Amino acid sequence: MQFKEATKNDAAALIEYFKLVGGESDNLLFGPEGMGLTTEQMEEMLFSLENAKKSTLFIGSVDSVIACVGSVRTNTGRAHMSHQGEIALSVQKKYWGQGWGKALLKELIQFGKASDLKALHLGVKADNPSAIRLYEKMGFTAYGNHPNFFKIEGKYFHKILMYLELEDSKTRMGEG
């Protein structure tokens, strides 16, 4: 498993990746249309992440094929919130169950610690038990529920809100 921080040169490949994973699963915030960004918009977003100190986007790849993508986003423009980051991750379906999600989550947690963040937050579709188990195994705790957050094909689904306190997570890296 190889991970790297994305650069604007990855924009076109990421657009195609997001369309692919969006069509494979309804556990994401988007469908087969992907994130709806043009190549130029994706390049701008990646350029801003390259210059951010507390935000990033990691790509995990196998033989130059994107297997997974994960991000930490921090609102450094708001002083009262700059100590925490929100994470998001996705894994291409053919790599599910092979440890990519866990390895990517470890990378994101390590980035958060190295960036001196105090907590990471995420949201997960309530009917995604595999992801919920992974997050719990890695030390995340559920703290709330956003009712009817997702609307997919006319049906509503809740989002579970989870967090990880980084200062207390040194022994909760999913090793046990």
Q: Any idea what the CATH architecture is?
A: 3-Layer(aba) Sandwich
CATH class: Alpha Beta
| Structural class designation | alpha+beta
Strand content: 25-35%
Shape: globular
What does the main sheet amount to?
A: 7 strands, mixed
Q: Segments where pLDDT lies below 50 for 5+ residues?
A: none
Cα-atom radius of gyration: 16 Å
CATH homologous superfamily assignment: Gcn5-related N-acetyltransferase (GNAT)
On the 0 to 100 scale, the average pLDDT is 91
Topology:
Layout: E1 2-5, H1 11-24, H2 39-50, E2 56-62, E3 65-73, E4 84-91, H3 100-114, E5 119-125, H4 129-137, E6 141-152, E7 155-165
Parallel strand pairs: 4-5
Antiparallel strand pairs: 1-2, 2-3, 3-4, 5-7, 6-7
Helix pairs in contact: 1-2
In short, what is this structure?
With 176 residues, the chain is an alpha+beta fold.
What can you tell me about this protein's structure?
The protein is of the alpha+beta class and 176 residues long. It contains four helices and seven strands; from the N terminus they run βααβββαβαββ.
List the keywords.
alpha+beta; 7 strands; Aminopeptidase; 176 residues; 4 helices; 28% helix; globular
